């Protein structure tokens, strides 16, 4: 039986609907949104004494169900189809005496002005606004004008819709410009997910007298899981918020039917602020054989550890999912701006939402486990947050690592998944511990660190490799004597501090463009200056250019991030690896010196171009890839005569480590310089 129109325009034709309802017979036709799902929203806006007009009623049971449950009885239903009006009069005339069905065109209604408190529309606007042609828009404007005319001030136009972008945009713009309050409700979905994929929305347009001038628009959205509306700053933002929810529904539908070929990422936002509260990644493992108990699990990433390779990269999450042994693993990262009570409260908050992301074939009422490291959500304390004109918003935070140690981190929020600088904190002294146990002791202020910075520990693998590369410095002596070092990029100061402390005759000049970073390093990372350590607030490009042709440094180290996230290279900025500038770097190096570059480049073509330029300038080039990271450390020397094979490099690294390990000077036993150079190769 053919029930669909030849053209969408036929949705506005009385002839089409007469034919439709004759062919369909007595069976009710519900476009979308059954009464049980719509009832919670309708109850908020329809009162028992209201006079209700239903436009384009069709043979839907909605009016009958509202009448039967006592929501409202004074209901007038209109439609342009004579066939359906006669059908509905026969069906409800004797059983619902206060409800009427009238043959009437909603574009030209016979009712007097301000006759109704509620106008209800279930799919009628969607059927009329099939395109954005001039004739269609004119009909919609006429429809809205008639609804406005028959509604009292304070009355509500309730429109049940799929909220296609052009339909929602037209309705929101029209009524908001008329001075009405616009609120969009998302209707809770039915249990039958196969029936309809797209979510259903109810537009609630409340009529107010139009105020002359530019009165502020009131635009709100109520997601299905909450009653309190969220205020939107513009019609565009409201339409975008609805679109986000539609995309989420489509995503849930898609991944509930088929496994994900690629990892899916999405944010769940806080109800009050609208800011991201959880970041989810859906990771499917095709290699895992499905059984009743291994279909699906949720993994809560401990706070502060979301940047680690295992949790912060696609490959790491893939490995995590495979080792966990579940067909689908949903990883959950917690945001620093949010407060969490504990694993139990997170589980309660997420349990309903995450089931929408369950895999195909999950048995009914299957218990889905929540996993974590050590069974807790970790510890994260934000110590300081501020904004720099150059680096943007940043935070300094303490997090508990994998074990008993705490770490202090500097994060630039424009790239929140990258740790800019990191230092390990020493455990509190016994005296500090006693003070902490006193009953009358107040909580420490966020400005008071729990322990001092452990300056003997280099957290970053690329820093360890950069220091190990100093064994390339020429001469037979294992530990160079007077050593002139230039470090471009301060961050938290861990790299220059280590060189300063362990190379006792080194003179370190640090160039940092952002004065805020010097304050951060000094106040939060234990950095300090003296006669052997000086910081220069300057652009590294300008500083090196001024020094050009004055060969004075044994080593130059670049560990400077790029502020431009649109480039496929986040370290260093592209200008730092252009040939003319690299030639200036070479000119300030001593003949037996070494230029050490931390390169972070995801663009393969750009990376090859950088390496080609480096080879053109420096005749001897070593590379050390950091396992599990994008970083690659490049050791560049101005003379080919210093070439050393792997065995010689290892021997020199061992000798250098022995010289650096001085009595009374703490040394991290896991830091083996020779191991850091084991994978070095000549380019």
UniProtKB/TrEMBL annotation:
Extent of Basic residues compositional bias: 434-444
Coiled coil: none
Keywords: Methyltransferase, Multifunctional enzyme, Transferase
All copies of domain Methyltransferase, residue ranges: 50-173
One of the protein's GO biological processes: methylation
InterPro entries linked: Lys/N-term_MeTrsfase_sf (IPR051419), Methyltranfer_dom (IPR025714), SAM-dependent_MTases_sf (IPR029063)
Keyword NAD listed: no
Pfam family, one: Methyltransf_31
Region (Disordered): 424-450
Record-level Gene Ontology MF annotations: methyltransferase activity
Protein family membership: Belongs to the methyltransferase superfamily.
Protein name per the record: eEF1A lysine and N-terminal methyltransferase
Organism: Erpornis zantholeuca
Name of the gene encoding the protein in the UniProt record: Mettl13
């Amino acid at each position: 039986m053919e029930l669909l129109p030849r053209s969408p325009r036929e949705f506005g034709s009385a002839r089409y609907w007469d034919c439709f309802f004759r062919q369909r017979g007595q069976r009710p036709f519900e476009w979308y949104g059954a009464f049980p799902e719509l009832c919670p929203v309708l109850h908020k806006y329809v009162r028992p004494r209201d006079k209700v007009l239903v436009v384009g009623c069709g043979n839907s049971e909605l009016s009958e169900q509202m009448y039967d449950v006592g929501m409202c009885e004074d209901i007038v239903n209109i439609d342009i189809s004579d066939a359906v009006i006669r059908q509905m009069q026969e069906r409800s005339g004797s059983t619902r005496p206060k409800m009427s069905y009238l043959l009437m065109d909603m574009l030209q209604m016979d009712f007097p002005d301000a006759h109704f408190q509620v106008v209800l529309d279930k799919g009628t606007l969607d059927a009329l606004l099939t395109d954005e042609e001039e004739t269609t828009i004119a009909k919609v404007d006429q429809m809205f004008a008639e609804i406005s005319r028959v509604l009292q001030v304070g009355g509500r136009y309730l429109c049940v819709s799929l909220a296609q972008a052009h339909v929602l945009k037209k309705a929101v713009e029209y009524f908001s410009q008329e001075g009405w309050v616009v609120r969009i409700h998302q209707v809770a979905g039915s249990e039958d997910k196969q029936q309809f994929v797209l979510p259903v929305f109810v537009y609630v347009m409340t009529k107010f007298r139009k105020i002359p001038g530019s009165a502020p628009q009131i635009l709100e959205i109520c997601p299905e899981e909450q009653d309190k509306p969220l205020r939107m700053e513009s019609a565009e933002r409201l339409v975008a918020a609805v679109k986000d929810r539609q995309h989420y529904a489509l995503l849930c539908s898609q991944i509930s039917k088929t496994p994900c070929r690629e990892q899916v990422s999405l944010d769940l936002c806080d109800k009050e602020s609208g800011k991201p509260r959880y970041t989810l990644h859906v990771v499917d493992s095709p290699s895992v054989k499905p059984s009743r108990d291994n279909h699906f699990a949720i993994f809560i990433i401990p706070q502060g550890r979301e940047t680690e390779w295992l949790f912060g990269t696609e490959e790491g999450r893939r490995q995590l999912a495979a080792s966990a042994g579940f067909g689908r693993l949903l990883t959950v990262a917690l945001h620093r701006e949010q407060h969490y009570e504990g694993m139990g409260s997170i589980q309660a908050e997420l349990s309903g939402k995450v089931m929408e992301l369950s895999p195909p074939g999950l048995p009914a009422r299957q218990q889905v486990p929540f996993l974590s490291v050590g069974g807790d959500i970790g510890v994260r304390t934000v110590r300081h947050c501020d904004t720099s004109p150059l680096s943007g918003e940043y935070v300094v935070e303490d997090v508990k690592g994998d074990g008993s140690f705490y770490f202090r981190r500097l994060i630039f929020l424009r790239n929140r998944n990258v740790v800019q600088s990191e230092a390990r904190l020493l455990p509190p002294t016994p005296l500090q511990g006693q003070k902490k146990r006193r009953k009358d002791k107040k909580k420490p202020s966020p400005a008071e660190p729990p322990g001092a910075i452990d300056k003997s520990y280099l957290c970053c693998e690329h820093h360890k490799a950069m220091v190990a590369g100093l064994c390339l410095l020429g001469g037979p002596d294992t530990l160079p004597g007077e050593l002139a070092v230039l470090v471009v990029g301060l961050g938290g100061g861990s790299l220059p501090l280590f060189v300063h402390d362990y190379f006792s005759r080194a003179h370190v000049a640090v160039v940092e463009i952002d004065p805020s970073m010097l304050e951060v390093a000094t106040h939060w990372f234990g950095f300090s200056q003296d006669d052997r350590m000086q910081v220069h607030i300057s652009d590294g490009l300008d500083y090196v250019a001024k020094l050009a042709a004055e060969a004075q440094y044994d080593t130059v180290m670049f560990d400077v991030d790029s502020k431009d996230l649109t480039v496929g290279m986040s370290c260093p900025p592209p200008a730092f690896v252009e040939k003319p500038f690299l030639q200036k770097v070479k000119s300030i190096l001593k003949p037996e010196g070494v230029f050490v570059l931390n390169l972070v480049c995801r663009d393969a073509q750009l990376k090859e171009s950088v390496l080609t330029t480096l080879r053109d300038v420096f005749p001897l080039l070593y590379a050390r890839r950091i396992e599990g990271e994008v970083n690659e450390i490049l050791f560049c020397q101005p003379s080919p005569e210093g070439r050393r094979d792997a065995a010689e490099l290892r021997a020199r690294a061992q000798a250098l480590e022995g010289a650096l390990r001085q009595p009374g000077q703490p040394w991290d036993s896991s830091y083996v310089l020779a191991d850091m150079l084991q994978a070095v190769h000549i380019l």
